Amino acid sequence: MPAPSPAPIRVLLAEDQAMVRGALAALLNLEEDIEVVAAAADGESAWRELQRLQPHILVTDIEMPGLSGLELAQRVQRHGLDTRVVIVTTFARPGFLRRALDAGVSGYLLKDAPPEHLVQALRTVQRGGRAIAPELALEAWSEADPLNERERQVLRLAGEGLSAGEIATRLHLSHGTVRNYLSEAIGKLGVGNRIEAHRLARQKGWL
After folding, report:
1. What is the DSSP string of 71-98?
2. pLDDT tens-digit profile of 19-69?
3. What's the CATH number for 149-204?
4. Which of 97, 117, 151, 177 would staple 185 via disulfide (CB 3.0–4.6 Å)?
5. Domain coordinates of the chain in residue numbers?
6. CB of 60 within 8 A of CB of 87?
């Protein structure tokens, strides 16, 4: 009598582009050992589905409305969920990979990789391994991120066009504290103003 087939790897997709989300779901559902249990179009929806379905693996993009993929990974880590996180993104920047690894991510793949790489990565991650895009792995530790989390928050909002006063209101900080964070970030990055600081940090993958 043949042995029963193992339970499929239960996957939750989080991707804001409908065409990409649909293509990923169709691709993964072709595999006998993988089941896409839900697909979310934004970070907050993905977080709700994560808690409800408790999938084995979350496959997520980085930039999404609501919560980013990195923020989702941080929540999974902070709440001690068993779900492993695999990021599939266009951001081939070592800074993003470093932040992802700090958030406990098990996989980091680029969207232009062959589809079979994702399938194999999910199997590797399910077995407890890691799957990192090889072209990024060696570069990930080449340049340290000089920003702390608060400086990153303030700089990200400054890049969205918010004034120091508006940032202070958003983050429940004093105006002077926000100016200090901006000044520290500008100094650490060795640039002349907040716009240049945002541009450089974005380019390096630190935002």
Report:
1. HHHHHHHHTT-S-EEEEEES---HHHHH
2. 999 999 999 999 999 999 999 999 999 999 999 999 999 999 998 888 899
3. 1.10.10.10
4. 151
5. 9-137, 149-204
6. yes
